[in-house]
Amino acid sequence: MNMNELTPDEKREKEDDALKFGYATLYGERGHFNDSIKNCSTPESAYFLGLEKELLDLPNSLSLFNLLNDIPEEHRERIGGIWKQLTKHGNDLYLAEEVLKSKWENPPQDMHDPVAHCVSKSAHSANVVIQDKFLKGFTAIASRPDRLQNPKKRTELLIWKTEEKNAREGLHKVFKKYLTALKAYYEMLLEHHGDKYVLPKEHPEREEIINKNNRLRVIDCFHQASGATKAAHHGQGKKRLRKGEAGPYVAHEMRTALAAIVDVLPYSPKVITLTILCAIHDVTEDTNYSIDEIVDGLVRELVDHCDSSLIQVVEPGFPEKHETKARNERRRKNKPEDEERVQSNIRDVFRKKILNLITTTRRSTLKQGLRVLSNKTQLRDVEKETVYEQNIAGREATKDALGLQFPHARMPQIPQSITFHDFPTDYDKGKMTKFLIRLNAITAKSNSTKQAALITKIEDRADNIASQENMPVYFQLRNLTVLLKM
Predict the structure, then answer these.
(1) Among the listed residues 62, 74, 107, 50, the one whose alpha carbon sits nearest the alpha carbon of residue 213
(2) How far is the C-alpha of 216 from the C-alpha of 223, rounded, in Å?
(3) Domain range list for the chain
(4) Bridge partner list, 248
């Protein structure tokens, strides 16, 4: 049946089938379940798989047993506490992975759901990589018990789907606990104050721990920001499948983020903000979430979530290093400075420093970046003044792009940017022109935000172009016609 002949409820049901299958295939590419880069859909995904394999397994050289004798005695009990939590979460993670693998590899047999099989076939035709051992499991995820004729099979599938969902959600929670514990372990080993160090300054493993910790944070942010984007897109009102693809919208944001990691991480470890921005860059366009709700709500809650059992064992080795900040926070809030409460604040300051990635600065950068990337953005008065002063696109092009009204004398017709002498501003309905004007106006005082937004846009466009081959022929021809007219 043609999708246009379906009712809204029937369309959403078919989308749900495809989304469930698509989410499972995306999950199946990650390090929990993927043993080979051959099972990755893109080179970028394969690169990230390599990072996961390298960083999620703690090498023996960095275990507490090998480092204990090099750690000053006054820090050993404290480090031992976080090591105990890390070991526990590592064991829990292994068991959770095995449980979910078993579910995927052993779905109910003879589930003859024609719609689910159609979804599976469609995914194969779209070059989605699916491991053979998981294919039946993923098909079962997309199957619906009410479409099965046999009552016994309906019950069997319903029980399996409930158990599979519980196993998947359990793995997600344990994975986050393990990542946070591993980051905290590294951070506590690297802690120092003046000439005092937990792990000696000249220790041969110290540089390796720094490198692993920086990249581990990128892995954590990619997974959590992608989870936030998935949640936001899944609840949107309009179509949740990306045009021309068999997969969910979040797949595009994930590919964009992975491409940025591949292009930047080998040269700079400071890609956390960029990774998050790429992973959420379309949420404001395709959902009803505001920028504040995305950054302060969805992203911050997932990225900075920390289990209470872990918080209890994260203690500073050098409390005096954080005392001034702790006392200043209490004074700012007009709270008493008795010693017990100050010490509690010192622990809070330390925990936020090593566990929280969504800092005040990063939140500001992400919000600015999303304003640059969103076509819904309305410029503020001070930003409009910047547009007038910069005049990168010329008077008429700027007026057409942003709908700004201003006296002709305020802004020359000729653009100051040489790019706009030859750039066809009507291409892509002026979206790139609007983006460049917003980019320069909003980030006039922040080069780091400008860089993150620009790289995100480049990776976004690159993925859009690369995915053209999966679009309908009429869509490709329309875009080719536009390009030929340039």
Answers:
(1) 62
(2) 11
(3) 3-309, 362-484
(4) 241
pLDDT at 309: 85
Residue position matching structure tokens 């369309």: 11
What's at 180, amino acid-wise? T
pLDDT digits (tens, 9 = 90+) for 13-58: 778 888 888 888 888 999 889 989 989 989 999 999 999 999 999 9
User: If you count them, how many residues does the chain have?
Assistant: 486
Question: What DSSP assignment string belongs to 66-126?
Answer: HHGGGS-HHHHHHHHHHHHHHHHHHHHHHHHHHHHHHHHHSPPS----HHHHHHHHHHHHT
Q: How confident is the model at residue 411 (pLDDT cuts 50, 70, 90)?
A: low
User: In sequence order, what DSSP letters do the residues of 341-397 get, joined into one string?
Assistant: HHHHHHHHHHHHHHH--S-HHHHHHHHHHHHHH-TT----HHHHHHHHHH-SS-HHH
Grouping H, G, I as helix, E, B as strand and the rest as coil, residue 243 is coil
Question: What gap in Å lies between CA 292 and CA 424, rounded to an integer?
Answer: 34
Q: How far is CA 257 from CA 28, 56, 461, 477, in A?
A: 18, 19, 12, 28
d(CA 71, CA 198): 6
Q: Report pLDDT digits (tens) over 55-112.
A: 999 999 999 999 999 999 999 999 999 999 999 999 999 999 999 999 999 999 877 6
